[in-house]
Amino acid sequence: MAHAYTPGLKVTPNTVVIKERRLPLKGNILVKKGDKVKSEDIVAKTELPGNVVPLNVVNILSIAPEELHELMLKKEGESVEKGEMIAQSRGLFGWFKTPVLAPASGVIESVSNITGQVIIRLKPIPVELNAYIDGIVEEVLSGEGVIITSNAMFIQGIFGIGGETEGKLVIAVKDIKDKLEASNIDETMKGKIIVGGSKVTTDALNKAIKVGVKGIISGGVDADDLKNFLGYDIGVAITGHEEKGITLVTTEGFGEIAMAQKTFDLLKKNQGKKASINGTTQIRAGVMRPEIIVTNSNIDSIPKEEKTVCSEEEFIGMCVGDNVRLIRDPHFGEIVKVKSLPVELSIVESETKVRVVEIELEDGKTLIVPRANVETIEK
Predict the structure, then answer these.
(1) CA-CA distance, 57 to 269, in Å (whole number)?
(2) What is the CATH number of domain 158-289?
């Protein structure tokens, strides 16, 4: 059977999802191998060192640096509270002493008789790492984190903003071509992840934040709407760190693009279930795609992940009969079926010779398009 290699996004109702949850610094692991975890469970925690606050004590007391140690009331390694006296001048005949108060709570990290500086290290910043998905702890990374596996519905998006969040799926529109407007959002959607159709508007994003919606999934988003919403151009940097209080995942791209029917139907089938989503996107080296994960009920028995099979060998690629997504106009975003994969080069509109794929549209019509104009949908 003919096949071809091509990049693609995964849209599948059931697959094995493996997530590595790693702390930024070594810390304490709170679970063990084989434990069942919920997405909100804390699986590891650590403490980041607090910021430092320098204090030029010799200037405050008008003394020489070598006198500093004698006038310190607190020594290196001792804790201090904000406003607490840490040093004091000798004064005049025991009177008119000048106090030095701690500007913040923390620990005296260093006292320098060369610079005259006292460094106060603020209190550590606690960091807790949740599981992100419901699943089973497959492996414990000593002091660093865990690997969690789950049997789940898994959809990769094209673009997103905002980090990890979770909530129950709610379908907010009737059809894949419907825009997600502010009027589609109400108070009952607080804490939920809502699903739109062709695109989400700026007004809808702002109302979702006001209501307390955790996430939005839509076919597309207009670039100008996104700029107005964020207050700046997104550029080509990695997303996911936006502090808007909501996560957005688009499944098709920029503009008013209807969500693929099969993607919409899959989300609709899982309405009311808890979904974990992440809008983090990176389109350059080390590509990262936004994702939607809904854990299936049978996480106790994680099956081996199935691979696409073409003839007698197993590999990742595009095969006759596969569903693929068109990524060029005039059928941008449509999911079609591969009818044949001609071996010979063909001349296209640009008068260049390229490899092509014959596809079948939903209405039964066939087209010949360059292979670069499609991406696979792994199942």
Answers:
(1) 66
(2) 3.50.30
- Asked whether this chain's domains 52-122 and 307-378 adopt the same fold, the reply is no
Q: What does the alpha-carbon distance between residue 301 and residue 99 come to, in Å, rounded to a whole number?
A: 66
In the chain, what is the greatest distance between 2 CA atoms, to the nearest angstrom? 101
What does 275-302 look like in DSSP terms, one character per residue? EEEE---B-SSS-B--EEEEE-S-TTS-
Task: Give the three-state DSSP class for 226.
Answer: helix
Where does 52-122 sit in CATH, by number? 2.40.50
DSSP per-residue codes, 16-60: EEEEEEE-SS--EE---TT-EE-TTSEEEEEEEPPPEEEEEHHHH
Taking the C-alpha atoms of residue 371 and residue 374, their distance in angstroms, rounded to an integer, is 6
232-288: per-residue pLDDT in tens?
887 666 888 888 999 999 998 888 889 989 899 999 999 999 999 999 998 765 678
Q: Which helix (H) or strand (E) holds 70?
A: helix 68-71
**Cα gap 157→159, rounded to integer Å:** 6
- For residue 373, give Cα distances in angstroms to 2, 20, 34, 250, 367: 18, 32, 43, 19, 12
- From CA 201, how far away is CA 180, in angstroms rounded? 6
pTM for the model stands at 0.73
Structure tokens at 185: 């959002």
- Over residues 180-191, mean pLDDT: 96
Q: How confident is the model at residue 4 (pLDDT cuts 50, 70, 90)?
A: very low
The residues spanned by each domain of the chain are: 52-122, 158-289, 307-378
- Measured distance CA(175)–CA(199) in Å, rounded: 12
Average pLDDT, the chain: 86
Lowest mean pLDDT among 56-65, 90-99, 214-223, 363-372: 90-99
CA gap 187, 194 in Å, rounded: 12
Q: Could you tell me which CATH class the domain 307-378 is placed in?
A: mainly beta
Task: Grade residue 97 by pLDDT with cuts at 50, 70 and 90.
Answer: confident
Helix segments in 108-222, DSSP class H: 202-211
Q: What is the DSSP letter of 187?
A: G
